[in-house]
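Worked example 3 (structure in, sequence out).
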């Protein structure tokens, strides 16, 4: 079963009197363990596509099926649960909770009920270790470097074992070497779990980490 099937998705935004077409007839099938790089200039619709795939935004038209489930049919409560249980987001503004430590930022997303506190703590510690953050587990986001914050965000995204990982420009705020390390880390974490991922980047040097690359220009996907 594909991780994601988008069919003829269109998204428009109202902006004053005019209408902005952010995505136009976008169709995309993502294999269940495939890593896709989505490349395009600023304003081309990359974040819109990720947001729609992850159920953060509703398409104006078209269908979005994630793991066999049509997500536009979900009510608000089910959509929230879908996002929490099935999707791992690593978005551009690394929005860690500022007053929680690195470890607490992972624990805060642990599914309530599904995992007891001890299992969640064990998983958070294992992820922090894998990401090379064991000795930073007790640090607040403000005490971490940009690269470290990015790694905490990756750990948080993987915490609930998502089927689909969505990553928005993970390297844009990092220098080339650190960017390479972060890409390497994201793709190896995703590969070792046989999870699907879409990684948005405007840096074509990063696309070799992906199985496939798709370009987007003015809201239109080009294989
Ligand atoms: N909330 C919004 N309201 C109006 N226009 C928006 C909104 N979000 C994005 N857009 C517009 O939609 C287009 C695609 O934006 P976006 O998906 O953020 O592109 P990218 O991530 O590739 O930079 C741009 O023209 C942008 O200005
Ligand atoms: Mg964007």
């Amino acid at each position: 079963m594909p991780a994601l099937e988008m069919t003829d998705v269109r998204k428009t935004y109202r902006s004053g009197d005019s209408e902005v077409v952010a995505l136009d007839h976008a169709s995309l099938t993502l294999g269940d363990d495939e890593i896709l790089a989505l490349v395009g200039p600023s304003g081309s619709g990359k974040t819109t596509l990720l947001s729609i795939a992850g159920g953060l935004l509703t398409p104006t038209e078209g269908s979005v099926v994630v793991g066999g489930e049509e997500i536009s049919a979900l009510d608000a409560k089910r959509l929230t649960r879908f996002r929490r249980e099935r999707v791992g987001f690593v978005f551009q503004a690394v929005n860690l909770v500022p007053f929680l430590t690195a470890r607490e930022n992972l624990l805060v997303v642990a599914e309530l009920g599904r995992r007891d506190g001890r299992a969640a703590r064990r998983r958070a510690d294992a992820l922090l270790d894998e990401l090379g953050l064991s000795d930073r587990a007790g640090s607040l986001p403000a005490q971490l470097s940009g690269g470290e914050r990015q790694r905490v965000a990756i750990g948080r995204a993987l915490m609930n074992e998502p089927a689909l990982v969505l990553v928005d420009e993970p390297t844009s705020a990092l220098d080339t070497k650190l960017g390479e390390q972060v890409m390497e880390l994201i793709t190896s974490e995703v590969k070792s779990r046989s999870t699907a991922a879409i990684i948005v980047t405007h840096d074509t040097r990063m696309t070799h980490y992906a199985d496939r690359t798709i370009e987007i220009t003015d809201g239109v996907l080009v294989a």
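Notes: The helical segments are 46-53, 76-86, 102-107, 117-130, 146-158, 176-192. Residues 82 and 149 are 25 Å apart (CA to CA).
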